[in-house]
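User: Sequence in, structure out. Go.
Assistant: Echoing your sequence, followed by the structure tokens.
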Amino acid sequence: MDASERPLRILHVLRAPVGGLFRHVLDLAAAQAERGHRVGILADSITGGARGAEQLARIAPEMALGVKRIPMNRLPSPLDIPAIWKASAHARAVKADIIHGHGAKGGLYARLARGGAATAYTPHGGSLNFNRNTPAGFLYLSCESALRAFTDISLFESAYARNVYEAKIGRPHGVQRIVHNGIAPAEFTPVEPAADATDLIFIGEMAVRKGVDILFQALNRLNARNVRLTLTAVGSGPEEEALKLLSQELGLSGQITFRPPMNARQAFALGRVLVVPSRAESLPYIVLEGLAAGRPMVATNVGGMPEIFGPHTDSLVPAGDVEALAAAISKDPGALAAQTADLRDFVKRGFSISAMCDGIMDAYRAGLDLRHSA
């Protein structure tokens, strides 16, 4: 078999088995295994809860290199040293050709535990959300800059993420590619709102960076104009209690229903218009999933959002702008229907798991070729 076609041994390393990063790894690992590659996952054993454990157990039979979990602290810690040693020993044991780190901590472990493997790194936001003018930002971005020398393949979900990386960290070493996240054909089955659906639905981490506070303020502003909208907020996070308190302070208790994390397609039926009020994003899965499901949407103009909205970028709302968000969410949902249908076709053409896997495998091959020719 030609070297460019031989099956590869691929180990994915990530910290928290939750959220969009985790979904990306699961989709990619499954697609690679389906194509005949021998794939494994190394993840944190502290986070993820029952849902993360269930999803890892579900994919485990497809992972020829196994699913292994070790403790990985979110913040820098002396415990990183034994964890990196364990990751390195595991990479050598499974004889990985590629060790692919996802997120800041996964990227750190993968690149320092490389052994003889070629290293790939996808930031998924992570350190890119920091600035050098803070102590934490200086530490994270300085580490990222140093780790470039240990990176054979740099992968970015959006042109925006690549541009931020170059501005904050520097030009990537080796092979670099922009490969958009992708979703499955089955996700293009429409989801209709339930009879008792609220006017709006938010799905994601309960955090200020997700703009949840801006959404609450927009609802409060509309109340002052006698426009009363209801909202279902699906998700959890470290700022959840503070945001619930804010909703009470703004007099929104009777308008907002808080629900724990659940499957996105299940959540879509709980509201008529999906709202993504984020202050920062790279290329969020929830937007791709919502458009695929045919849900009308209001979203902010951040990160890679314009790469998804393509012909309708002008409909995106400025991040952090309470008045603009209030105006957008108070529009008749029917007015968003034509735009949603157009964007759904755009996403179907350009954001598939198959295309994502193609792009990443091509980058792997190029990185291996470059490493072997050095």
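User: And one key feature?
Assistant: The chain has a mean pLDDT of 94.
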